[in-house]
Design brief:
Blueprint (H helix, E strand, L loop, with lengths): L2 H16 L4 H15 L7 H20 L4 H5 L3 H10 L6 H24 L5 E3 H26 L2 H4 L2 H21 L9 E3 L2 H21 L4 H20 L6 H5 L1 H28 L1
Helix pairs in contact: 1-3, 2-3, 2-5, 2-7, 6-7, 6-11, 10-11, 11-13
Length: about 280
């Protein structure tokens, strides 16, 4: 069994065992869990999950003995968590590169979909590159923000302020993705024919379906994003085939495309939120 499977097994086991905690102990432990998991992207993931499992088992044992998590681990869990983080081993170079490639690849993939889902027959490679790099920076920044906010009283005790800042960050991120590509020079641009674009959209639909079927370990991301992927690429096909391209260029066609895309986003948000509640 490789490390990824072991990590997934530990996470699933952790999710199940947490159900045995009292409400107070659960809140205490989940703060520790999030604080340690978001300490950085380049720590050894397997070691983190093993440490979190050990802490959880200790709290469960204390709970059986009639102690709360706070009584067992102390009123300042941040200090204990910081000591744990300081002793964590760094992930190997290969794993760090794999993580960067995953974030970069996901971002570039969706940037590609957004470019080929319209009637425009150009692909801007510079946009794919910059969006991929930007996504990695954003992920690191969000991890840092979440990590710092866990035990910061102004955030942990004021949900309005916390979610307000997250909303502002989300708006900034959306604006960066929307308007930054407009400023890019028209270089590294590939122009393709309608036939090639139709084949590319069809290929993405086919491979996404296959990938979702065979990669069950990544079912959350795949099932959440699959409808959006299929809808976007179908719109890309409809905007180019002779029977429907005229309709798609009209007001009704644009409205249809907007509603279909919105449906994909709603599904992604709903499914991700529903599954995250289980975690």
């Amino acid at each position: 069994m490789d490390n990824n499977n072991t990590i997934n097994d530990l996470i699933n086991r952790n999710n199940e065992l947490r159900k045995q905690l009292t409400k107070k102990n659960l809140a205490y432990y989940e703060n520790v869990l999030i604080y340690i998991r978001t300490a950085g992207l380049f720590y050894d993931g397997l070691e983190i999950e093993m440490v979190l499992m050990q802490i959880l088992q200790d709290i469960l044992a204390a709970q059986v003995a009639g102690e709360t998590a706070e009584e067992y681990l102390g009123k300042k869990p941040q200090n204990a968590a910081n000591e744990i983080i300081e002793n964590l081993g760094k992930g190997c170079y290969k794993e760090s590169l794999k993580l960067f490639g995953f974030v970069f690849g996901i971002s570039s993939f969706f940037s590609l979909i957004s470019q080929i889902s319209t009637a425009n027959n150009q692909i801007n490679l510079l946009t794919l590159l910059v969006n991929g790099l930007l996504s990695f920076v954003i992920v690191v920044t969000l991890f840092h923000f979440i990590h710092k906010s866990i035990y910061t009283k102004s955030f942990s005790q004021n949900k309005i302020r916390k979610y307000g800042l997250l909303w502002i960050l989300s708006v900034i991120i959306l604006c960066l993705y929307t308007f930054l590509p407009i400023t890019f020079p028209n270089i590294l641009t590939i122009t393709m024919t309608n036939s090639v674009m139709i084949m590319l959209n069809s290929f993405i639909i086919f491979t996404s379906l296959l990938y979702t079927f065979f990669r069950k370990s990544e079912k959350l991301l795949l099932k959440a994003s699959l409808p959006f992927i299929i809808i976007s690429n179908l719109l890309g096909i409809l905007s180019r085939v002779e029977a429907t391209h005229f309709f798609m260029a009209q007001q009704n066609g644009k409205l249809f495309a907007a509603l279909a895309t919105m449906a994909g986003f709603i599904w992604f948000s709903f499914y991700s939120f529903k599954e995250s509640k289980k975690e």
